[in-house]
Amino acid sequence: MVIETLKFDAEEIAATISKWVGLESPSTDPAAVNRMMDLAKETMTAMGARIERTPGRDGYGDVLIGRFSFDHPTGTPGILVLGHLDTVHPVGTLADELPVRRDGDQLFGPGVLDMKGGMYLACHAVEKLLALRTRLNLPVTFMFIPDEEVGSPSTRALIEETAKAHKYVLVPEPGRDTHFTSGRHAFLRYKLHAHGKPAHAGHAVSVGRSAISVMARLITEVEGYSDIEREITYRVGNIRGGGFVNTIPAACHAEVLCVAPTAAAFAEVQARMSAISSPDPGVQIEVEVGPVRPLFQAHDGTMDLLSVAQPVACDVGLNLDHGQFGGGSDGNFTGALGVPTLDGLGVVGAGAHTKQEHLLVSSLVPRAKLFVGLVAALSDRNA
Hints:
Helix content is 34%, strand content 23%. The protein is an alpha/beta fold. Strand 4 and strand 5 (106-108) form a beta hairpin. Helix 3 (30-47) packs parallel to helix 4 (112-132). The two termini are 16 Å apart. The model has no long low-confidence stretch (mean pLDDT 97).
């Protein structure tokens, strides 16, 4: 059995993950993301992959693809390992609030959990497998995405095109102790723009109309739409507006992230957001629709993939159920297309998107064994 034959060293894996995490790569800094892509390319090249690199567009980084075709004819559907190397953490985080550091079982750093740890773990697992088997019965493709944390606006079409040419999609996003991720809630992004009228703020009687005041009322209204019991949420995560304190602000902008676990909830979100209007006739409100991650619900292809993955997990000593969760990923796109997709195959930890982001070093070996065992099992069933 492959799992019993291959030996993994948690400290060795953690050391290279630390190197990956030591290169900051926020989504909105394409040069930084591309430096991370360079490092991933080094890993892929050393593994013997055929490299394809698509230049970034719309202000985002490049897409990196590493292919292991073996002797299969061009176009043979295989396994797509899909993940991203961009993070939510700005350049400077390493030197300030979240340096790469070890505290017992916890390895901290920007993107260590979401999801550089998982992507390197997948690379390492497949590298070990290819050292044992020179040929697999399915081609294996790695796809590294530069803009997932902002909704994959420049890469969605390429992700979907690539996924449709594959038989299975494995997504090493952060894992759970108890579950595979067999579905993802839908994510809808919006930008709200308030346009008021400027005036001197020091006058007792003013003809100005404050865009910030109206936006503040709208934020309370929009976040009030959340229904936690139904797992429907509306969250404002970014707001900007105004200039000098003595000038009534003429513009204010806010970004909203909405999560919908069902098709009915998705339609409800769309209806509510499209109906937003200004409580002040002197301030205009514009609702701009942003990137959408479609609803990914478990389907026959997913369940078939689970039928392979769950026995492998048991062999590793992991008893994993499955479920649909929030926290969108590029697996939303592939799962919604009907391509058999299994998500949450990465490292285990906590604090994603915060200054306490970390993985558990103790999770590295069992999760590497799970990943390598799953790839080997999918290869074997296609002999």
